[in-house]
């Protein structure tokens, strides 16, 4: 139950971050590069990685493929909301960064599962 509360708080955080104007913070992240990638793309990936992990912990009976598809829909859909907001900008690279975060979260879930299977043997 505690993971479900965390998941819903996390989803609320994602929605708020999509609709709140970022002002100068967005410019700072867009102008900073790490390994020739804009830092904001990496931030998008890191922010979306916990989504899959929290969902998997919250709803253990949901198949992983459903969590991944829903996560990808959220990754693209939340970025798409910014297209409708006059003070935010939609960027396909941000949506890709979000989707990469979902895949990273899936890798975390899979890695932990494989680690637990190896530990239990």
From TrEMBL:
> Which residues are in the VanZ-like domain?
39-109
Q: One Pfam annotation, family name? A: VanZ
Q: Which domain of life is it from?
A: Bacteria
Query: What InterPro entries does the record tag this protein with?
Result: VanZ-like (IPR006976)
Q: Does the keyword Ribonucleoprotein apply?
A: no
Where is the chain membrane-spanning?
A: 7-29, 41-57, 64-87, 99-120
* UniProt KW Acetylation keyword: no
For this UniProt record, the keywords arranged alphabetically read as follows: Membrane, Transmembrane, Transmembrane helix
Write down what this protein is called.
Answer: VanZ-like domain-containing protein
């Amino acid at each position: 139950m505690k993971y479900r509360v965390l998941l819903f708080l996390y989803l609320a955080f994602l929605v708020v971050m999509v609709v709140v104007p970022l002002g100068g913070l967005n410019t700072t992240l867009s102008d900073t590069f790490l390994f020739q990638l804009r830092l904001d793309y990496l931030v998008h990936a890191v922010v979306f990685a916990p989504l899959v992990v929290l969902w998997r912990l919250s709803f253990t009976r949901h198949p992983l493929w459903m969590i991944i598809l829903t996560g990808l829909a959220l990754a693209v859909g939340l970025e798409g909301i910014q297209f409708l907001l006059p003070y935010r900008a939609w960027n396909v690279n941000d949506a890709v960064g979000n989707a990469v975060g979902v895949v990273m979260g899936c890798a975390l879930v899979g890695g932990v599962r494989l680690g637990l299977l190896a530990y239990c043997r």
